[in-house]
Amino acid sequence: MTTLEKVLSIVSRETGAGKLTAETSIDSLGLDSLEFVSLLQEIEKELGKNPDDEKVLGVETIGDLIKAFA
């Protein structure tokens, strides 16, 4: 499973969102700040990587989110 597939699976599971792509807007997920942090923690746990804090601040899409963990 690729990182993209893993992250899409995690985001779908945690948010209940349906069809997601790397271009899906984080805003469209309807997360508040606490839910976003919880999502980041779940991705961190499952990928075993820490996000780049500066990149996380500029996240607009799921693709950006993946780059923050690269």
Question: Which key features would you list for this structure?
Answer:
globular; 0% strand; Non-ribosomal Peptide Synthetase Peptidyl Carrier Protein, Chain A; mainly alpha; 4 helices; 70 residues
Notes on the protein architecture:
The protein is mainly α and 70 residues long. It has one domain (3-68): ACP-like (Non-ribosomal Peptide Synthetase Peptidyl Carrier Protein, Chain A), CATH 1.10.1200.10. It contains 4 helices and no strands. The chain has helices at 3-15, 33-47, 53-57, 62-68.
Radius of gyration in whole Å, from Cα? Answer: 11 Å
| Uncertain ranges | none
* Averaged pLDDT: 94
Total number of strands: 0
Overall 3D shape:
globular
Q: Into which percentage range does the β-strand content fall?
A: under 5%
Q: Output the structural class.
A: mainly alpha
CATH topology: Non-ribosomal Peptide Synthetase Peptidyl Carrier Protein, Chain A
Can you tell me the number of structural domains? 1
- Write the H/E string, N to C: HHHH
Largest sheet: number of strands, sense, barrel closure: none
CATH architecture descriptor:
Orthogonal Bundle
Distance between the termini: 15 Å
Query: In CATH's first tier, which class applies?
Result: Mainly Alpha
Architecture blueprint of SSEs:
Blueprint (H helix, E strand, L loop, with lengths): L2 H13 L17 H15 L5 H5 L4 H7 L2
What would you say about this model in short?
The protein has a single domain, classed as Non-ribosomal Peptide Synthetase Peptidyl Carrier Protein, Chain A (Orthogonal Bundle), CATH 1.10.1200. It is built from four helices and no strands.
